[in-house]
Design brief:
With 173 residues, this protein is of the alpha+beta class. It has a domain of 119 residues: Aminopeptidase. The protein contains four helices and seven strands. It has a seven-stranded mixed sheet, sandwiched between helices. A hairpin with a 5-residue loop joins strand 6 and strand 7.
Length: 173
C-alpha cells in the first residue's frame, strides 16, 4: 500500500530513491527540466539543492511503498511580500512502472492540503503541452491559463509548448 507523507529530512536510501525517480522520469520523457540521459551525479546535485530548501519551508511529499519511493512532488511557498497567498507545485514525478495508479493524484492532494494549511489560496504549475500530466491536471480541477510555444525542451531536446495552470483553494483555519 502506498503511503503519502511530507519529509523534512532524508535517509541515504531515500536520497538514492529520489535520484532514481528523477532518472526514471527523464528517461520516460517527463519534461522536468533535464535532458536525457541524466546522470546519477546530476540527479544527486538536483536533490541536494531541494534538500537545502526544506528548512526554508519547501514542502516535499513522497509516495512510498515498502520503504521505496515511487513518487514525489514539491510545494514552493512564495516568499515575496505580495505573494503570501500563493504557492507553486514543482516536479510531480511517479515511476513509469507505477503511473496510472492514482499516485500522482494522491501526491497532488497532499500538496494542495499542505498549501491550504499554510494559508495559501492560489496554486500555480506548468507542464508540457499535450502531455498526460496536462490531462491529469485538467481532470483534477486545475484551470489552464495559457501556453507558450517552444518554451522548454523535452528530455530528447525537442522544443515543446508549456501550459500554465492555476487552482484556487480554501485555506485551512
Amino acid at each position: 500500500m502506498v503511503q503519502i507523507r511530507r519529509i523534512e529530512s532524508l535517509r541515504h536510501a531515500q536520497f538514492l530513491d529520489l535520484c532514481e525517480l528523477l532518472i526514471d522520469a527523464v528517461k520516460g520523457g517527463a519534461s522536468v527540466g533535464f535532458l536525457a540521459p541524466i546522470s546519477m551525479q546530476t540527479a544527486a546535485d538536483y536533490w541536494e539543492s531541494v534538500i537545502s530548501e526544506l528548512s526554508s519551508g519547501l514542502g516535499l511529499f513522497i509516495a512510498e511503498e515498502e520503504d521505496r519511493i515511487v513518487g514525489a512532488v514539491q510545494v514552493a511557498l512564495c516568499g515575496k511580500e505580495n505573494g503570501q497567498h500563493r504557492a507553486e507545485i514543482r516536479k510531480l514525478c511517479v515511476l513509469q512502472s507505477r503511473r496510472r495508479e492514482g499516485i500522482g493524484a494522491e501526491l497532488m492532494q497532499a500538496a494542495e492540503g499542505f498549501a491550504a494549511s499554510c494559508g495559501r489560496t492560489l496554486l500555480v504549475l506548468d507542464t508540457q503541452e499535450g502531455s498526460a500530466a496536462e490531462a491529469m491536471y485538467a481532470h483534477s480541477g486545475w484551470q489552464r491559463v495559457g501556453a507558450i510555444p517552444d518554451y522548454a525542451a523535452s528530455p530528447d531536446g525537442t522544443l515543446h509548448g508549456t501550459v500554465f495552470f492555476s487552482k484556487r483553494i480554501e485555506p485551512d483555519g
